[in-house]
Specification:
Blueprint lengths: L10 E6 L6 H8 L6 E4 H10 L3 H12 L5 H12 L7 E5 L5 H13 L6 E6 L2 H10 E4 L5 E3 L18 E2 L6 H15 L1 H8 L3 E5 L4 H15 L1
Parallel strand pairs: 1-3, 1-4, 2-3, 4-8
Antiparallel strand pairs: 5-6, 5-7
The structure holds adenosine monophosphate.
Adenosine monophosphate binds next to helix 2 and helix 3.
Amino acid sequence: MPDGPGPRSARAVIFLGPPGAGKGTQAKAVASRFGLAHISTGDMFRDHMSRNTLLGEQAKRFVQSGGLVPDEVVLGMVGDRISQPDCQAGFVLDGFPRTRRQAEALAETLRARSCEQPLVIYFAVDADQLLRRLTGRRTCKVGGEIYNIYDLPPKVPGRCDNDGGELFQRPDDREEVIRERLSQYEAQTRPLVDYYRERGLLVEVNAMGSQAEVTERVLQVLGRTG
Ligand code: AMP
């Protein structure tokens, strides 16, 4: 990232990896440190669903079953989001792209805006950790902080350390939905690891270990490539 305002275009950072790899947690931890907007397509869908918007209606059955929302719906939403002023200096994409078509559409959008090529951080994590992270995940209803009842428990069970907000389990973190989400990842999203590696854009980060350890590794990559 440039140190100050300047003519350089927005920097796009993609957090790629399976559900449960810690992309959302890490994006929350690092985006603001680099002046980047955090764009989580999953959070955007959940927000639309809670407000019963048309987009929420369109996404609902896919999100609830662990399937992928159709590309046209996702692309429209992301296109609008990255035109917002807070994305001008750059943004972290968390949960997007998830299909080859989304990756190609993103490349086209970045080209059209004369943006640099994206930096793709791939969160590598053992498969047996994913279930633990997904089934243990709890989110604060107020501020969206993410905990894990096994590995990163709140001080008071069920309450957020920051604001005392109630912690809840995402409905799609139930085991049968998790299975579908992981299988969608394997079929549709994992091929993007090779897609970006072949283009020389991928940096792999070891996403095992504590949240703080992984944050340190991600910060190193972002600092190095800035
Ligand atoms: P996440 O919070 O990233 O795990 O996303 C939750 C759910 O939102 C996914 O299981 C999908 O149903 C939907 N979703 C999020 N991002 C995308 C995307 N880029 N393409 C299609 N569906 C998505």
